[in-house]
Input
Amino acid sequence: MNLDNTTWQTLNETIVNCRTCPRLVAWREQVARERRRAYREVEYWGKPVLGFGDRQARVMVVGLAPGAHGANRTGRMFTGDGSGVFLFRALHKAGFSSLPVSSHRDDDLTLDGLFISAVCRCAPPGNKPAPEEIGNCLPYLEREIELLGELQGFVALGQIAFDHTLRLLRSNGHEIPRLEFGHGAFYRLGEDLPWMLASYHPSRQNTQTGRLTEAMFDRIWAKVAELIKK
Output
C-alpha cells in the first residue's frame, strides 16, 4: 500500500473506505446493524475510524483498535466507552483536551498538542485484531506519523500498541533494540526519532481492577507535559 503522496484528506478518505480485512468488515457492520440495546435508536458509524486531533501535534497517542460500541458507534477514537471516559478525563486535567468527556465526533472537543490514533482502525471481534489485520492497517499509522511534522514522541496505550509502533519504525530501517513494555517505561529511540512512553491501556479490565489508577494515569500525562516543554 503506497500512501507516500497522500494528504490528510486523501488519507482519511482511503481509511474510511477500506475493506481490506473481510473478518473486520463483517464484524463492524454486524455490530452497527444489530446495536446494543442502550443504543438501539442510535445510528452507528460502522466504518474504519480515523485518527484525530491536533495536526501540529508534538505527541501521538497510539491505542489498539476501536471499541465495538464505542468508536465503532461514535466514529471517533476512544469516544463513547469506558476507556474514553478514563482517557479524556486525564487529558483534560493535564490541559491536552478542551473537554473532560468525549461523547461523539461532533461534540466540539479539541486536542492541544496531541493526535490520537491506533494500530487497527476497525472494531475487532473480542477486541483482538489478528496480526495480519494489524499489518494491513499499519501503513495508515505510518502515513499519519509522516504527516505530523512537529512530532516529538509517542504514548503507547497497551503492549500491542507499543510493540507495533516499534515494529513500524524498525520496518523503516531504524535500528531500535528490543524494549520492555511496562507502565511508565520511557525510551529515547534514537537521533531524529520520537521518544516512546508506555502506559497500561485505560480499558475497564485495567481501571476497574486497580491495575491502572487515575493517579498512575495522571503521572503519564504530567510526564508528557514535562517532555514537550523541554
